[in-house]
Amino acid sequence: MPEERKPEVTLVGGLANRGQVVRIGDTVRRPQRPTSPATHALLLHLDDVGFTGAPRFLGVDEQGREVLSFVPGTAITPPYPAWALTDEALASVAALLRDYHRAVATFDPTPHVWSPSPPPAFAGELVSHNDPNLDNVVFRDGRAVALIDFDLASPGSRVWDVACAARLWAPLRPARYIDDTRRARAVARLRLFADSYGLADRDRVRLVSAVLQNHDWCYDAVGIAAAHGHAAFAEYLAGGAMERAHETRQWYLTNADVLQEALMRHPRRPRRLIGLASGDGDLHT
Ligand SMILES: Nc1ncnc2c1ncn2[C@@H]1O[C@H](COP(=O)(O)OP(=O)(O)O)[C@@H](O)[C@H]1O
Ligand SMILES: [Mg+2]
Fold first, then answer.
1. Are residues 129 and 267 in the same domain?
2. Structure pTM?
3. Which of 75, 94, 220, 275 has the most CB atoms lying inside 10 A of its own CB?
């Protein structure tokens, strides 16, 4: 059957394009944005250099939607499957992010108009994904195999993506906001993420600051979109997200030293680190 006559199946996952992302056969159709030409150039580059951890850009359909390859597998959406919350799964996300950064390092973003960049201290190194949330990673056989949804990609940095991913995947937030096997393992999983990625020392020393700024950047973006009438983001905020965000922000400030210590390759207080690696019950939750 020609692709155009196959049924459209709505794909669920994120909030930004809720209800507007569909699968037709082996393709995905998504609304375009003013910055889509930049994103398409990025996806074409990734394909050119042989990076398989992203959808391929296939064109624009008669409705003006971008056409991407459908990546077989499972994106992580609630209720989260247990296999997506394991340390092995976390390490595979870090490895995928590292591979993406290697592939994108040779891409020149300067001819294009991009989505907003991260704060200047975290911009200009390479085009970061900027949204490595759980529902933007496709898994197969328990391992992360592809990043999807490059809408927010822009000239950013490795550490900015690592901060965002660690924040969401560890996850880094008060234990009372984690009700699965990841509870009380935030610090150990932060260290595991940095190690699995192979984070350089110069980025380890600024990762905790990046986490805090990334948290603020993301919530600012959601707040601005909601204020401009984005229904899904407005519902998200109305559901208590802002209160959780304020408490999480305070948690970062209170625990910054503990998080930083855990990231150092040669911690000054190794016995304390060993204690933390088995749980973060002594964190201020
Ligand atoms: N190329 C793709 N391959 C496989 N699944 C996809 C692809 N693009 C999107 N999806 C699925 O659709 C969901 C929503 O798509 P996404 O582009 O992330 O929307 P949003 O911009 O709203 O976050 C994803 O979480 C994933 O489950
Ligand atoms: Mg998404």
1. yes
2. 0.94
3. 94
